[in-house]
Amino acid sequence: MVVLNKIYTKTGDAGETALGNGARVAKHAMRVTAYGTSDELNCFVGVARLEATDTVDEALSRIQNDLFDLGADMCRPDMEKDAEAEYPPLRIADAQVSRLEQEIDAMNDALEPLRSFILPGGSKLSAQLHVCRTVARRAERLAVELATMESVNPAAVKYLNRLSDWFFVAARIANNGGVDDVLWVPGANR
């Protein structure tokens, strides 16, 4: 359990922060940027939950918890040393990716196939889910970039990839099952 008695520590005043293994790195380090973006995404999910119905809200609640798992995973480098750690580090599991896939398939089964690209919008919830989708894509790009430099859990990258797809399909569900999707009209304003 985490206990936070004091919120500010002053240990980051010089521009460094601690990773999950205790190592100190610059606050602008790629790893910090990657897991910081998953935290930003979690905030946008919290905003979307304000508009969500029970079923979507329950799914978004699970996603928020998963995003904390993802942050815990990403803030802990040196996956090859996991077995040596005093406490086993929390890592995103393939089962979390599979759950997203099952939810995407179930939602998508209720939708008509797309015949056009869609624009973010329609309902307020749909627009918020599209914001989540784009932030998830940015988090994924950063995780992929980090993986070119350091060890990253492959399941974490897969999770972010599926999560952006989940938000896309959920945004269509939030638009009256896709009926109220805003369709892109190529060259409409020429």
TrEMBL record:
One of its GO terms (molecular function) is corrinoid adenosyltransferase activity. Its main location: cytoplasm. It is an enzyme of class 2 (transferase). The keyword DNA damage does not apply. GO terms for biological process: cobalamin biosynthetic process. Pfam families: Cob_adeno_trans. Its EC number is 2.5.1.17. It is found in: Cytoplasm. Residues 7-173 form the Cobalamin adenosyltransferase-like domain. PANTHER family: CORRINOID ADENOSYLTRANSFERASE (PTHR12213), CORRINOID ADENOSYLTRANSFERASE MMAB (PTHR12213:SF0). Belongs to the Cob(I)alamin adenosyltransferase family. This is Corrinoid adenosyltransferase. It comes from Ascidiaceihabitans donghaensis.
